[in-house]
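Entry: N-acetylmuramic acid 6-phosphate etherase
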Amino acid sequence: MPTPYGELQAQLSTLTTEAYRPELAEIDQLPTLEIAHTMNREDTAVPAAVAAQLPQIAAAIDATAERMARGGRLLYLGAGTAGRLGVLDASECPPTFNTDPDEVIGLIAGGPGAMVNAVEGAEDSKELAAADLDALGAGPDDVVVGISASGRTPYAVGAVEHARGLGALTLGLSCNAGSPLAAAADHGIEVVVGPELVTGSTRLKAGTAQKLVLNMISTISMIRLGKTYGNLMVDVRASNEKLRARSRRIVSLATGADEPTIEAALVATDGEVKNAILTILGEVDAATAEQLLATSGGHLRAALTEATKLP
């Protein structure tokens, strides 16, 4: 008599991320150092797999930045490890790029509690994903990224399908070729890293690959939006002592100014690094710097160009 999981077992057996590797069947008998060497060799395959998807990743980022430039949000949705990675990437954007907490949002199937405890059945619901997006008021200006190592997780696929119906831009990030998630999205990104060291444990190579791609999506989008000046985090939010020290170092690297000048600029601009740099390099006061940045959409280079045109 067939089990109720026969169909799902058949699906999983076709996935690269779920493949069994008989050559590793005795790995638990090996010395720890040898297991570590094996795992390290496995991990070296991840960057190459990401590199193979760079054209698709770049196209997705350009489209993402265009939506965000007109006020859209970046929304990550996933279950389990994939969901946690989305929440992690979203949570790091405010301190790094001074984004509003509602500008980049990570949602995990089952809600915040699922970050530390599994919520049974949450990943199996397309309807839950649709409800989560509706609760956020997702719409045409937003970017929705479904994340799933298998590329078949109903929560991630449902998020992309529902978001596309709302007119949002959709990205599907998976680690299997020919995935339903990529097929459902405007931009499918399939980073095929191969079978895992521990069969089906996609927190390993697949998780690493997803983290690398999410780093690219958020970081390069922010670069395109003017959140950096060169490779300096000029929109950093100085919320602790380390970041306050980093703010001063950034202003120093960007301007070459002495410490008293830097301190005066930061005081005048209420600690806003980008504004402080503009007051020094553009030789304008704090109010003018704020106005120039507002009219340039926050792009420091454009604001500096405009500053040179002032009488």
